[in-house]
Fold each of these.
Amino acid sequence: MMHLAHNLNPAVIKELGLGSQVSMNTVPTIYLSPDGRHIDVSGETVSFADGTPHPEGAIFAQMRAQLKRFADLLAPLALRSPPDLSKGIGLSGLGELASLAKLGLNLRGLGASDMREFLRIVLSNTYDLILDDLADGPLAGGLAADSVWGAWAGPRSPGTIFSLMYRYGVGTSAQVPVGGMDRLIKALANCARGHGAEIRTQHKVHSVLVDNDRVSGVTFTDGTVFTAKTVLSSLAPLPTMHLVGVEHFDTEAVRRVRHVRAKGVNAKINLTIKGALDVPGLDQKQSTGRLVMAPSAIACEQAFNAAKFGKIPEVPVLEIYSPHTSDASTPPQDTQLLSVVAQYIPYHVDGGWTDQARRQLQERVIDTLSLYSPSLRSQIDHTETLSPEDIENETGAPGGHWHHCELNTDQLLTVRPVNGMAHYAFGVSGFYLCGASSHPGGDVTGLPGRNSAMRLIKEGLPS
């Protein structure tokens, strides 16, 4: 699903020793404009694609720099389990509250003006913030789109500024491993094997075994049984609960997990085209960057309005990247793969995800791409269209949601995924949640798994 590593945390790279195996490239972002005046955002530089200065470039850079400062303020919270407020203010409770105390001190350290601004906007919406200072166009639209990727939310939805800060957790630029995302996956697998792990693919887990309210192993669908004192699940909360059996959880925990909100809103379209992508107004290097098609903030909101009513937007918001084209070690190819993430494609589409609905989705994506690359349709050699339902079926992510549950204020920190299950331990002794539904959330960060493992180490293996 993910073709870029927006938010891979440096702590994960350092602790796993991946620095010698994975080298990251920064990918420029191009906000495409219907009039051909595309906008190149490379690092902190904002200009038109032809190199001329953008009149709002300084304002945009200043706004993004402030949001990055606020994101840096929140970043330490992502590196540890959420505070367990149930411990009260005893000695153990004080340890849990230390991170919040540090956040308060750092907040005061911003100065009175920035502190007031942080408190004013952190739970607000990006639409108002962006259009306070920017005219509504591709620059505003691109920033609005960056605040809603993967979320059942429009730019006017409360909490989208927090989502943008989350996305800026380790920087404002998109990155990709040299060799593509496959290289990162292989490096992680090699690291695990180097520490004695055995990786089995194409083996479906049937159930988690429980003995005297403690996990004792797992069974596969082929009948194979593995005994273990601890089990970690990267699935979403509800399928994880079904694996162990709802009878092992109290009624309130089951009720809360059943009501976790995870409305999938993304589709994935892969296009193989003959030759290179041709976008008038971009040079060859720019066309291999991260291309965002969000002509304005209001266009993003209108696309979300369609999704609310089960409709596929006529002009969906798109992010396009061509894997390997920015990797100098990859020889030129006769064909090029375009990986497209389409935002505001509803999981509960009117009439269900029939073949006709998939064709409509595919055509609307291609039509939108063709607004910027008129020759594209004649270049297409092969297509693959994955609806949110297809993504759910392939990955197990409910609704195809890449965070497994919404990143809203009532599903964050001490209530992520639900109240009483926010600290990775999942109901049964020795059982842990380590996927995107646990703190701090999805994207390719590595942090839910890292934090879950740290929690397991802290608590120790069951005797």
Note: The two ends are 39 Å apart (CA to CA).
Amino acid sequence: MRSLGCFWCPGKDYSERELGDPCPTCGRTYDSPLRNPPAVIAKYRVTAAVARGFYGATYRAEQTSLRRTVVLKVIPTATYQTHGKSWDDECYAHSEVAENNPFIADITDQFDANVEFGEGALECHVAVLANLPGPTLEQVLANPAVEGLTARMAAQIAADLFDIMGSLVARRRFHNDLHAENVIVRRLAPAEKRSADVFDPMILAVAIDLGSMSEESRSGGGERINDQHQVARHLARLADALRTLSRTRTDTDFRIGETLRGLAEHLTPAAGAQRLMSQDDARAALAGAMRTVDEPWHKPLTLRRIGDAQNAQVLESWHVPELWLDPEGRWFSRTTGRGPQVITGMRGCGKTMLLRALHFHARARKIVLDGHRDVVEQLRADGFVGLFASSQKLLNPRDAANPRTTIPSPFERLYIAYLRDAIQVLRHLRSLDDSALNGP
């Protein structure tokens, strides 16, 4: 639920309502401008209703003279008279904050027109906004499976919400009506693809309907919800959407969902009650959650108690340098000699650790821990690339306990295991130096 004003009976009641609720004065529902949209507005042909804000409604329309799709924000002039607002000043402020700001929908024109709705005509203010292909955030949250929500997409929306707030604060402004229908999750064309350092380069969350924008936060005083708390709501709903998407949650879904919930909890207290994290801090938290999945070699080794142990067979190779002692590299120089070698020893003496210390991930981590800056150059000096596959895993598939199950040929499984490990090695190498690989 959110604050909605009646299109036909403007007032200053900011109570939260459902779109289908009737106005206590005229009986029309608050979504009547969406259910009964105008066919034309001036020289624009309306093609679809988009969303309702507190004051007005937005529509997609075609500018017939140029066959160009735009978004029209339509607000009855009586509403602005009731609230003592200046339409011209608002449009100018919108243009000012949208300039060179990808997180705010651009405004290209504004005018007044007599608009014929299905339930009568109204004199309205009309703003012409850039068309933003994609659903509203409300549509994504209400139908995450239909809209194709993923953990990466959720993380990107969250990061963009912080950037929306940050871009306005940098201009000494507050949106003051940042509900989920006032955010468009824009689908980008291939030519508009964002840089590689974002979570999902093919989407961009953009704020629309800046009718409540001002130089101070007018909401949060028991009437409307301020920007900070609106974003907290969106993050919590994104976390819930990820949780309910499927029965089987991936590690990425879990980590991003929990991070989003933690950020939402951080934003829930009053702004003056704590020091709020910046959008850079929030993005770093999201990146950390994603990196433990995308780049697990950054995840620290955790040994909580004195009796904790790690089995070398299941220990990730990038943790080996933290546990393996090799004074002056003597073990390394012996095991990297040319020709076949046989390593023998009693159980638990460190044979597996010796081998895993040669794995690419272990070597890369060791070089970093040793303080070398040019990690790739040091790896090149090794003269080899170590791959690792556990024979125990190759010979014991999940259903091996069933005596009627035929274990697949181990050599085919070994080949696939090495291919998978090689891909992980390439990902690790690219994280060290983006130019170290040829191609994407």
Note: The longest strand covers residues 107-117.
Amino acid sequence: MPDLSYARITRYVDPASPNPGSGYTSWSTAAHEISTALSAMSGGDELIIRDGTYTGAINMITAGSIPSGSIGNYTTVRAENTMGVILDTQ
């Protein structure tokens, strides 16, 4: 059974977001970089990355950059659409 004591927050990444906010909780306030959104996450949150190609170290996902969730309260990072995100951080 999921841990209902924590309300999952969905955060968004879109380099074309017109007005990045501090919480990145909608497409209109999405973070411009993946690492920025990851640093705002807590365990159990979800991150949705808008389709596209992401370049540079600022968009790298490394071990430890995704906060740990727990059984039934998983942290999720996913593309907006299956196979829609390319990470080219070289």
Note: The mean pLDDT is 89.
